[in-house]
Amino acid sequence: MSFDSLGLDAEILKAIQEQNYTDPTPIQQQAIPVILSGKDLMASAQTGTGKTAGFGLPILQKWVEQQAQTTNKLEAKKGKRPLYALILAPTRELAAQIGENIREYSRYLPIRSLVVFGGVSINPQMMKLRGGVDVLIATPGRLLDLVQQNAVDLSTIKMLVLDEADRMLDMGFIHDIRRVIAKLPKKRQNLMFSATFSDEIKVLAQSILHAPELVAVAKTNSASEQITQYVHRVDKRRKRELLSYLIGKNQWQQVLVFTRTKYGANHLAEQLTKDGIKAAAIHGNKSQGARTKALADFKSGQIRALVATDIAARGLDIELLPYVVNYELPQVAEDYVHRIGRTGRAQNEGQAISLVCIDELPQLKAIEKLIKKTIPELTTQGFEVDPKIKAEPIKKSSQRRVPPKRGSANSNRSPQFNQNGVKSSSRHNHTKNKQPN
Ligand code: AMP
Known about the structure:
Blueprint: H1 10-18, H2 26-36, E1 41-44, H3 51-70, H4 74-77, E2 85-88, H5 92-105, E3 113-116, H6 123-130, E4 135-138, H7 140-148, E5 159-162, H8 165-170, H9 174-182, E6 189-194, H10 199-208, E7 213-216, E8 227-233, H11 239-249, E9 255-258, H12 262-274, E10 279-282, H13 288-300, E11 305-308, H14 310-313, E12 323-326, H15 333-340, E13 350-356, H16 361-371, E14 377-378, H17 413-419, H18 426-431
Parallel strand pairs: 1-6, 1-7, 2-4, 2-5, 3-4, 5-6, 8-13, 8-14, 9-11, 9-12, 10-11, 12-13
Helix pairs in contact: 2-3, 3-5, 7-9, 15-16
Bound molecules: adenosine monophosphate.
Residues 21, 24-25, 28, 47-53, 317, 319, 345-346 line the site of adenosine monophosphate (AMP).
Domain DEAD-box RNA helicase Q: 1-29
Domain Helicase ATP-binding: 32-215
Organism: Gilliamella bombicola
């Protein structure tokens, strides 16, 4: 199937040609016709499958079509640009990434898109909204702040996208999402994307989507085939040494490293730098400026190792990212799939290596159960595990459950979930890092 056969506008086709996209990816092949037909969509697709264009391109197409129809209508006469589509994303990085993609795809269209997220000044965002915007990409918290300040009118929205809906729930955004949805017109098209399909997601989907078409590209909870995965058993105290050794010996020039905690990310970035490997940390406690700079330096090759926590890494889109290292395994097995999904994106191959100490064997078991395969082991001479070392329980992170800005979302999560008919997951409540948006 080619992009030409999807019925997209010539200006859109020109822009995607310039992106060197030759054929639509499977999610694009399935999702684009459904969205163009006007139906609601529930799509199970991980980041890296091309899902952003999967919803971005048909949104642009539908906007073009409705522009042609409404040129002479009242709204146009008033000179106002009514907001056409709203895309909600859980993290700033993902929102920025979606915004960048939409800008690229709409390069030849007279459309205005805007990205808004917290952590940066609200005033420039308000100014831009006042000037009129067609497609708004937002994180839920900042969007509600803008709504409260009457800076944005959501009543004209025709299309809503919830991207990485599973992560939105994990991060405690359910109430923010519901508050946003309450401001939208009843008649609209809804698109929901999620990497995993938990019961919570199904309940959310039932309450938002109307007779949705279901589209799935990779098996739920399965890791991409293009990613070669390895486990490297190692003693905890030798992990850093091994990581520096692997980076040096294999001459990895761009490696994304995951730690469980923000402190761990900072500490490891400092240690790698001491080992002569240029590194930076990216996590929720860093200012937006510092996060953007670290990502830009990583993309441009000025730093070799980007050390990230799970939430900070969501939505990072780094072309051709070849290596992901799990310096520590995540406490929730699904996060493993999200983490390694940073590599092997689109048609590229990637390698994911997990450095696993004896304390982490239960997590490894849970991950292998989830992905339904045993991950092959790598060994390195001189880094064999010491059989005398006994397992110690993993210390739970001290920075868990940072309440979100508007105390409502996380503070009393289970009862609030129940109020909305959404079952709360005790595992998520007790084990996940939560960082404000
Ligand atoms: P996403 O899953 O939307 O984050 O996309 C992952 C990566 O695939 C991004 O770098 C996109 O630019 C790229 N991509 C999206 N669609 C295509 C396509 N049809 N052909 C090649 N690359 C694509």
